[in-house]
## 1
Amino acid sequence: MPDQDYVHGYSQRESDRLNDQAGTLAELLHNDTVYPPGSTVLEVGCGVGAQTVILARNCPKARFTAIDISRTSIEAAKALLAREKITNVSFENADIFELPYKAETFDHVFVCFVLEHLRNPVEALLRLKKVLKKEGTLTVIEGDHGSTFFHPEGRAAQQAINCLIHLQARLGGNTLIGRQLYPLLKNAGFKEPDVSPRFVYVDSSKPELVEGFTRNTFIAMVEGVKQLALEARLIDEDQWEQGIRELHAAAATDGVFCYTFFKGVAIKS
């Protein structure tokens, strides 16, 4: 996946968004991700290290190798873990489709918010399966933008979200991939895939989620594709601005915002 195929880009704003997302969702997505002491774990598509920090902190006696295709992201991840004084992670610049590891190298593989950006997710899973030891586990987490619903409802808001879905599809990605994790894991030959929905419900009684998820994660993600959406003529500027206002209304006192992530765990036979 070339750098330019990452629809969200590599700005500081996107880095901040990823860190907000990881911190806000840490308990929901990672409370049951635990790797035994001494185990070797490959994290694929580590980005700026937002998920890496959480994994390494939760499993201080496991050894992590974190890879990403973007050198810029790798440098940001290294700096983050240095600031956090985390030492059980090594980083490499590598492509998921050209992994520089021998067969059956790792005890476990972890993939979060990566498959949605790939043209051939099954092929990616097959490559990961190759470097995974027998009976090792693969953990994969993805969102699903089609699971979004909110109050007050807004047609323009949905149109803005659809712009993101459409733009990512143009780049060969799939923002609806969360609902497809089970068949993807089955088609890649993993055994005993277990997929669970991780539902996010936000209202004003949960101010940390209003700020951390609704505003700083989801709305920020949609806002980040404004220029691309306008250039592609998927929406006009007035409709776009109305859509963003409607999304922010879901983060107001009487607003409600809902979204579902999917987490799959499977075993290499």
Note: The first strand starts at residue 40 and ends at 44.
## 2
Amino acid sequence: MIDIQSKIIEAVNMSVGLAHEIADLFKAEWDARKDIAKTLISLSGATLVFTITFSQSVIKPDTPLFWRYAFVVCWLTFILSLALSFASLWFSMGLSSLPLLMTENTQKIKDAAKEAIGIGKSEPLVSVFLQPFKKITKQEKIALWLLRLSVLCYGLALSIFTVIGVRQLLR
């Protein structure tokens, strides 16, 4: 019985170590995504403030309605880019917590290991072991898609703003 308990403790410690290794592997990518989100927040916010501040010099009383709406759409897409970047950053903050989640599950893993040994099947242990990975995987996918949508919105807003600027120059 002592040998089984020592094997269970060894497996639990190994799972926490594995979680640290996996988190270390992805850390550079997760940090890069956070940096991109922070950059988009800065750029979107600055561009939004700048365009609103100087909108009177671009939108004049004789500006057609279409171009006024284009400016509003531009602002809305910058705001959407900001919101999506904040959301991506929010979900990205928890990605590095895999080792912590695995450590929190230590007792559950021990109990599941004992149950697995008792019934002779590994399903209870595998199920408990994979819970933190599933949680992080879900967060990772959400953060990635939010960031992609934010970049798309920023690109769209910048494109609209560029078209408006070129139109002003050609006028």
Note: The radius of gyration is 25 Å.
